[in-house]
Structure formats: structure tokens, C-alpha cells
Amino acid sequence: MKMTMTSTFRRRAAQGFTLIELLIVVIIIAILAAIAIPQFANTSGDAQEAALDANLNTMRSGIELYRVQHRNAFPGSTVAAASTAEAAACTAAGGTSATLTANSAAAFTAHMTSFSNANGAVCSVSAPAGGFALGPYLRAIPADGITNPPNADIAMVTATGTTVAPAPTAATGGWQYDPRDGRIRVNSNATGRRGTPLFNY
Fold it and tell me: pTM for the complete prediction?
């Protein structure tokens, strides 16, 4: 009896699965995939928006710290050329100073990523003898993380007076920065996963 059951089991194992059994397994795998794949897609979008929030918070904190340390001037809004003595101190420390144009993307980037003095003159290295002991506030301007490819360009608001900065009109990506009030936002009119435009994040 024991020998008969063993031989029957071996014959059954040698035959393999039936077509019905294989179809059931394939259907179960397909159902699991249909449930799991949208969840992974949602996770990717959520991660992108979390990175966007983190980058915005980092830049907003840096902008505010710059303002506090530079006599209420926002980065990029006012520039000052290094005096002869300040430029000499920067050079002696192994750095270079730059001539900036107010309300430009280059000035904003330099103020956020370089060492500066209280007047807003910049040096590529720390040079306390020239007053270049403030900053940098960011290692680099981060990409938005939402557009494809990610964009780190700065679009400066050129409105004057109290005119409200216009909302972006395209999904260009990168950042829109207003040097009058230090407001930075995503330069995109696309709608985020929260159902609101990205520029309102």
C-alpha cells in the first residue's frame, strides 16, 4: 500500500501542471501586478513632490537667512562691487570676486552659492579679512525634480513697484524668483498631485 501511494505520487509529479492550473497561476499574477503597478506609480509621483517641497523649503530658508544677514536685502536684489581692499583679501585667500548685475539670475545664484560680505559683494572662497564670512546658503541651485529633465534655471520677476508677480504661463520648470520680496516658486503652470498648480506650492 505504501509503495503504491509513492509510485502514484511520483507519476503525478512527473506529469507536471495541467493547463488549467497554469492559467490560474497566470491570472493570479496578473491581478497582483494590476494592483501593485499603480501603487508604484503613485509612490514615484509622491516622491517627486516631496523632493520639490524639500528643495523649496531649503531655498526659502536660505533666502531668509541671507536677508537677515544682509541688512534686509534679498539675494540678487542689490549688489555691491568689492572694494579694492576687499578684492585683494579675496584674491589673497585664493578666491575671485565677481561683478554682479542687480535683479539678475546670476546675482541670485552668486549670493546663494558664494561667500559674501554684508554689502552683498561676493568671493568664491571664505575671506574673513575682506568681510567675506557670510554664506554660502546653498551648495548649488537645486533642480525642481518635477519637470523632465529636471530644471534648475532661475526666471527673474521683472515687475516693479507693488505689482504682483505674474503666474507662470507654461510648464517650463525651474524656479521663478521675485527679488523684491524674496518669493521663490516653481516656474510651471502644471497641476500637481494635490490638485493645485505647482507654482502655489
Answer: 0.78
